[in-house]
Amino acid sequence: MARTPRIDRMEAVLHQRLGHVRCAIESVYHRHNVSAVLRTADSLGLHHVHLVEGTFRPVRGTARGAERWLELEHHESAAQAMDALHAAGCQVWVADLDPDGVAPENIALDRPICLWFGAELTGVSPEARARADGVLTIPMRGFAQSLNVSVAAAMALRAVSERARRELGAQALLDEAERDRTWERWMGREASRGRAIDALAHAQPMVEDPTP
Asked: Do 116 and 27 touch, CB atoms closer than 8 A?
């Protein structure tokens, strides 16, 4: 495929993708919230997002197509997601209000990490809380003692992802094998997109039936 500004942009983005930081969203049913978290994850350079239970249909206007560039992994239960994350070598920190919770700026990054966010009203499930490696709490300085899940995710993910880039450098990024797999997938989709655009450009114009 010929080099284009779009291909150059894809390559630049891929080489900034993080492998050390992941995000999990559990039972978040408001589509705008899911879409906002996906867009945040993409903008911060995350690659893996785990969708746990619930129905996830991103809202196009909110996600802006971010889900197409992420590695979305669906799990039917919190237990299944926890098993997969721990098998991948990740420590899992659930976001919750807890006087003993750790602020995003203070979480250890000696192992890959997944930040886990729960449902809008009920938060993370008891099972997720029980199996987590730690509890992440965003410090509250005002009268409000809760945040919208998409806002909380944006604040925590930015703090952790920027620390990972600063402290770990290239070690925080996707490894070469995963970059190659992702590039192949992206380019395959681009080829399909190009064929669709070409077919549309060469399609015969519709002619109205002249008969009355």
From this structure: no
Angle between helices 149-168 and 31-43 (to 10 degrees): 20
Report the CATH number at residue 37: 3.40.1280.10
SS3 127: helix
- What pLDDT, in 10s, does the model give residues 59-102? 454 445 788 899 999 999 999 999 999 999 999 999 998 889 99
Of the CA atoms within 13 Å of residue 162, those in its CB half-sphere come to: 10
Q: How confident is the model at residue 136 (pLDDT cuts 50, 70, 90)?
A: very high
Tens of pLDDT, residues 65-74: 788 899 999 9
Query: What total number of domains does the chain contain?
Result: 1
Residue 24 sits in which domain range?
14-138+148-172
Phi/psi region, residue 199 (left: phi>0; alpha: psi -120 to 50; beta: rest), is alpha
Which residues face 26 on adjacent strands?
52
Number of helices and strands (H, E) in the chain? 7, 6
Torsion angle of C-alpha atoms 50, 137, 148, 33, degrees rounded to 10: -10
* Predicted model pTM: 0.85
Per the structure block, which two tokens stand in for 108?
A: 């250890």
Q: Which residue has the tokens 């993080």?
A: 18
In the sheet with 48-52, reading across from the earlier edge strand, the strands are 71-75, 48-52, 21-26, 113-117, 91-95, 134-136
